[in-house]
UniProtKB/TrEMBL annotation:
UniProt protein name: Porin
Heme in keyword set: no
Protein family (similarity comment): Belongs to the MIP/aquaporin (TC 1.A.8) family.
Membrane-spanning parts: 34-61, 73-93, 108-129, 141-163, 183-204
InterPro entries xref list: Aquaporin-like (IPR023271), Aquaporin_transptr (IPR034294), MIP (IPR000425), MIP_CS (IPR022357)
GO terms under cellular component: membrane
Keyword terms of this UniProt record: Membrane, Transmembrane, Transmembrane helix, Transport
Subcellular location(s) of the protein: Membrane
Gene Ontology molecular functions: channel activity
Membrane topology value: Multi-pass membrane protein
Organism: Actinomadura rubrisoli
Location (main, coarse): membrane
């Protein structure tokens, strides 16, 4: 239970920061988002692994570090936290209007590409800095994870919204930032990115793969 509560808290503050900074049109929103993810990773990493992202949880599950039942509870906590935080951000900022992102045509394709790539990058970084047997107890994992999100948000936030996280995407749709009719773009891209990250991690970390294959079921 403490892991699920930790996932809720971390995801809540991540999505709350996303919502408040984007709705308020803060110029340094990506930096704030990366910073809050970093501190929440440091705060909760020792309890739950600090996924705060259903795509990351999928990657960790496929990598073999979490069971399906726990992954399902993580997903539930993360999605509930995402919607709750987004509605809180909408209430706090209370914008006169919310611009809805609804990609179509070429922009739909580019949104799929960049959301997949940067979710892949995020999940790949998480797996390497937080689950690899070669880096036990390192003290830079939170910084690496937070800056991956900040870099992605600066790079492609104007193209896809820079969610890289199904909980963020669902929260954004809940307050009108993303079109519900197009939410599949973010969900598909992000879960694919998480799955590919797990495959890439296992491909380039053969000792971790061997440990996974020899571990008891």
């Amino acid at each position: 239970m403490r892991s699920f509560i930790t996932e809720f808290i971390g995801t809540f503050f991540l999505v709350l920061t996303v919502g408040c900074t984007v709705l308020a049109k803060a110029p340094m929103a990506p930096l704030a988002i990366g910073a809050v993810l970093m501190v929440m990773v440091y705060a909760g990493g020792h309890v739950s692994g600090a996924h705060y992202n259903p795509a990351v949880t999928l990657a960790v599950f496929l990598r073999g570090r979490i069971g399906l039942a726990d992954a399902a509870y993580y997903w539930g906590a993360q999605m509930i936290a995402g919607v709750s935080a987004a509605l809180t951000a909408r209430y706090v900022v209370h914008p006169a209007e919310v611009a809805e992102l609804s990609p179509s045509g070429r922009s739909l394709g580019t949104a799929l590409v960049v959301e997949t790539l940067f979710t892949l990058a995020l999940a790949y970084v998480v797996l390497n800095v937080a689950t690899s047997k070669d880096q036990p107890g390192n003290d830079f994992y939170g910084l690496a994870i937070g800056f991956t999100v900040a870099a992605g948000a600066f790079a492609v936030g104007g193209i896809s919204g820079g969610a890289f996280n199904p909980a963020v995407a669902t929260g954004a749709a809940s307050i009108g930032m993303f079109a519900w009719s197009k939410i599949w773009i973010w969900l598909l891209a992000e879960f694919v990115g998480g799955a590919v990250a797990a495959a890439a991690f296992l491909a380039v970390n053969p000792e971790d793969r061997a440990a996974l294959e020899t571990s008891p079921s």
